[in-house]
C-alpha cells in the first residue's frame, strides 16, 4: 500500500509563519518520480546510469558488465530497473544490447523533481 501524506492538516496558529502548500503531483507524475528516485537510490544503479550517461553514444552491455564487481544477471536486473524508470533506453543489435540515456525520460525527471521543491532549486 502506498504511503500517503495529508497536506490538509493545519498547524497551530501561534507556531509559525504562513505555510505555502505545494501543488500536488498527479498520481502518474508522483509514481514516475518515485520510480526514478528509487532506481537512482541504489549505488550500483547510480554508477551504471552515470557510466551510460557519460558516453557520447550508446554503450554495449559487454562494456558495462566488466566495470562492476557484480554478476551479469545482476547488471541486467539493474539495467531493467533503470529502463522501467524511463532513465535509459535499449537497442538490440544482433545478440548485443546497447544502452543510452533516455533524453525524454531524464527531462521528465528533472521537471518532476523541480516540481517537488521549486524554491529550493532556484536558490541552489
In words, what does this structure look like?
The mean pLDDT is 83. This protein has a three-stranded antiparallel sheet with strand order 1-3-2. Strand 2 and strand 3 (96-101) form a beta hairpin. It is mostly helical. The chain is built from six helices and three strands, in the order H-H-E-H-H-E-E-H-H. The relative contact order is 0.15.
Task: From the structure above, extract its key features.
single chain, 124 residues, mainly alpha, three-stranded antiparallel beta sheet, 6 helices
Concise account of the structure shown:
The chain is mainly alpha-helical and 124 residues long. Helix content is 51%, strand content 11%. It contains six helices and three strands, in the order ααβααββαα.
Task: Give the topology.
Blueprint: H1 27-41, H2 43-53, E1 59-60, H3 61-64, H4 72-84, E2 88-93, E3 96-101, H5 103-116, H6 118-123
Antiparallel strand pairs: 1-3, 2-3
Helix pairs in contact: 1-4, 2-4
Order of strands across the main sheet: 1-3-2
- Largest sheet entry: 3 strands, antiparallel
Helix and strand composition category = mainly alpha
- Helix-residue proportion: 40-55%
Fraction of residues in β-strands: 5-15%
What's the helix-strand series? HHEHHEEHH
- The low-confidence runs, each spanning 5 or more residues with pLDDT under 50, are none
Amino acid at each position: 500500500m502506498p504511503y500517503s501524506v495529508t497536506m490538509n492538516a493545519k498547524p497551530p496558529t501561534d507556531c509559525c509563519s504562513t505555510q505555502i502548500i505545494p501543488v500536488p503531483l498527479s498520481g502518474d507524475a508522483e509514481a514516475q518520480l518515485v520510480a526514478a528516485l528509487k532506481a537512482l537510490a541504489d549505488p550500483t544503479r547510480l554508477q551504471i546510469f552515470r557510466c551510460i550517461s557519460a558516453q557520447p553514444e550508446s554503450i554495449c552491455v559487454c562494456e558495462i558488465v566488466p566495470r562492476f564487481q557484480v554478476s551479469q544477471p545482476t547488471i541486467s536486473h539493474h539495467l531493467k530497473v533503470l529502463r522501467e524508470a524511463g532513465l535509459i533506453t535499449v537497442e538490440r543489435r544482433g545478440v548485443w544490447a546497447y544502452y543510452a540515456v533516455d533524453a525524454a525520460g531524464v527531462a521528465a525527471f528533472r521537471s518532476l523533481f523541480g516540481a517537488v521543491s521549486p524554491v529550493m532549486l532556484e536558490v541552489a
